[in-house]
Amino acid sequence: MEQNKRKKKGRSATKIIPPKKKKTENLSRDEVRSINKKKIRRKRKAKRLALLAGLALVVACAGVALVLAVFFRISTIQVKGDKVYSEKDVVAKSGVEIGDNLFLANEEKVNESLTAALPYIDKITLELDLPDTIIINVTATREVAALPYGAGFILVDENGKVLDRNAAMIRDGVAIVDGVQLKGAPVGGVIKLNNDQITSRFIELLGAIKSSGFKQLTGIVLTKAGEFQLKYDDRITVKIGSFVNLEQKIRRAEAAIEKENEINAYSIGVMDVSVEPYASFDPGEESKVPVTKAPATQNASEKADENTATEDEAEAPEDEAEESNDTVSDDAEN
Q1: Contacts of 60 (CB under 8 A, 6+ apart)
Q2: 119 and 189, same domain (yes or no)
Q3: Residues whose CB falls within 8 Å of the CB of residue 187, separated by 6 or more in sequence, listed in order
Q4: pTM of the full predicted structure?
Q5: Rounded to an integer, what distance in angstroms lies between the CA atom of residue 74 and that of residue 99?
Q6: Which domain holds residue 150?
Q7: Could you give the CA distance from residue 205 to residue 220 in angstroms, rounded to a whole number?
Q8: CA-based torsion, 209, 210, 216, 218: positive or negative
Q9: Engineering a disulfide at 291: which of 37, 169, 219, 248 sits with its beta carbon 3.0 to 4.6 angstroms away?
Q10: 141 CB contacts (<8 Å, ≥6 apart)?
Q11: Are residues 207 and 261 located together in one domain of the fold?
Q12: CATH (domain of 94)
């Protein structure tokens, strides 16, 4: 055992000494020249290899460019996906042309061009069908809210994108916005309201409404206190409070309203979901914030009754006139 330990200690103690480099001081002049020539040859060889590699890369790039220039030219442009615009309009506004190289089509640039020129397009993707066909896949967007503007409406989607500046009508499920100040509404661009903070919160609210799938939403109101409220079916105001867990609050409000509708489908009041995780309903308390809406049915029926009464009154003088004419004719005969 002791001998083995001594052997191990002896092995660990041994050191490998690398060979010493020859010093040029002890070499002759011819030997020094020979060494320097070898170094120069190595450097020249390395330069030649680098040059050859560079030339090979240039030739390869030129070959690829030649192939792209001669082959893979676009001869067919197809449009697939949502049919919000005609194929002719999409192709014309895309910037993609027959004869362009298939691999040089820039999807980001085409997307920017189409979404700006044709606002109801949300996004596009390009698909290459070799050897000569490019496919534009279209995804459409729809309006979520409408801002009264002049004699019509400005329509915006869930991202605050302006789709139309002069819409004469709005479809069901589109909320009418009230209480905001319009600062800018470029078609194809993002709407601008009172200030950047209000604009940002408004767009966040639109996205949450879209994601939650809130139905029968008729109004979005910005109160004087700077808080956004929702209007359900023009009869129930939804108080949101802070935007923390915004989408969940909207879902909770809709679920609570559905339960309230089971009790009374015509109830009017305020649904408060501002305090987590509750939803409280105050029946009979109408929203103090005015919301743009169509005339009520009762007012319309009363107006119709008034028109009928007016027509009856108008017919009475005509009957009296006819009677007087008959009397005059009888006297003339006598």
Answers
A1: none
A2: no
A3: 119, 162, 163, 164, 165
A4: 0.65
A5: 5
A6: 145-283
A7: 9
A8: positive
A9: 219
A10: 119, 120, 121, 122, 157, 158, 159, 161, 163
A11: yes
A12: 3.10.20.310
Q: Are 212 and 158 in contact (CB under 8 A)?
A: no
State CA 299 to chain mean position distance. Answer: 40
- Full pLDDT tens readout for the chain, 334 residues: 455 555 555 555 555 665 555 555 567 777 777 777 777 877 787 888 888 888 888 877 776 666 666 678 899 999 999 999 999 999 999 999 999 988 889 999 999 999 999 999 999 999 999 889 999 999 999 999 999 999 999 999 999 999 999 999 999 889 999 999 999 999 999 999 999 999 999 999 999 999 999 989 999 999 999 999 999 999 999 999 999 999 999 999 999 999 999 999 999 999 999 999 999 999 874 444 444 443 333 333 344 344 444 444 444 444 444 444 444 344 434 3
96 within some domain: yes
Pairing assessment for the beta strands 76-81 and 269-272 based on DSSP bridges: unpaired
Domain count, the chain: 2
Q: Which amino acid is at 7?
A: K
Residue 152, domain member (yes or no): yes
Both 93 and 219 in a single domain?
no
Which pair of structure tokens corresponds to residue 330?
């009888």
In whole angstroms, what is the distance from residue 163 CA to residue 142 CA? 8
Instruction: With respect to residue 158, please indicate whether it lies within any of the assigned structural domains.
Output: yes
Last residue of a domain, one of 283, 302, 319: 283
